Amino acid sequence: MTKFINGLMRLKRGPWEMVASILIAVGVVMLMQPFVMALYTYSFIVTLIGTVMFIIVSHFPE
User: Fold this and answer.
1) Which of 29, 34, 35, 43 is deepest in the core (most CB within 10 A)?
2) Contact call for residues 40 and 27 (beta carbons, < 8 A)
3) In this structure, are residues 24 and 51 in contact, taking their beta carbons and an 8 Å threshold?
4) Are 59 and 18 in contact (CB under 8 A)?
5) Complete DSSP assignment for 1-62
6) Which has the closest alpha carbon to 54: 9, 3, 26, 13?
7) Which has the closest alpha carbon to 2: 17, 15, 19, 21?
């Protein structure tokens, strides 16, 4: 856990890619759930933020 947090603080690619991937996955789950309209409403924004974040983070050093 400490290694993960240190990677985030030092702008390492691996931990930030994981965060971006989790955001993309959460956005897709929010899009597919049929129960809460607020989650569905913000699903596209969450997925978009995760995708843009992944594109930016892929340029970070390893």
Assistant:
1) 43
2) no
3) yes
4) no
5) -HHHHHHHHTT-HHHHHHHHHHHHHHHHHHHH-SS-HHHHHHHHHHHHHHHHHHHHHTTS--
6) 13
7) 15
Q: What is the pLDDT of residues 45-62, one digit of tens each?
A: 999 999 999 999 998 888
Can you give the pLDDT at residue 10?
81
Is residue 1 over pLDDT 80?
A: no
Whole-angstrom distance, CA of residue 26 vs CA of residue 22: 6
Predicted pLDDT at 5 = 82
Integer Rg of the chain from CA? 13
